[in-house]
User: What shape does this take?
Amino acid sequence: MALSDRDQAILDFERSWWTEPGPKELAIRERFDLSPTRYYQVLNELLDSCDAMAYDPLVVRRLRRMRDRRRRARFEGRPASEPPSR
Assistant: This one.
């Protein structure tokens, strides 16, 4: 299934949200009319999509790495900002 306009807009937003003024959560509500929780649910589904990877592979790979790092940190019981112990 091809990406919807909203899905493409979400990936575009993730590419450059930090260049916009104000908090990200406020921009999510204003731009997509979604709660931040629902936005991140949609985004996580997109990250597993082949269509999203074809649309913007750099953003998708970066966000997958960040998601995997957070998941590993939770599993290991440490903050995501802390480097993994070797």
Q: What stands out?
A: The two ends are 41 Å apart (CA to CA). Helices lie at 5-16, 24-32, 36-47, 50-55, 57-76.
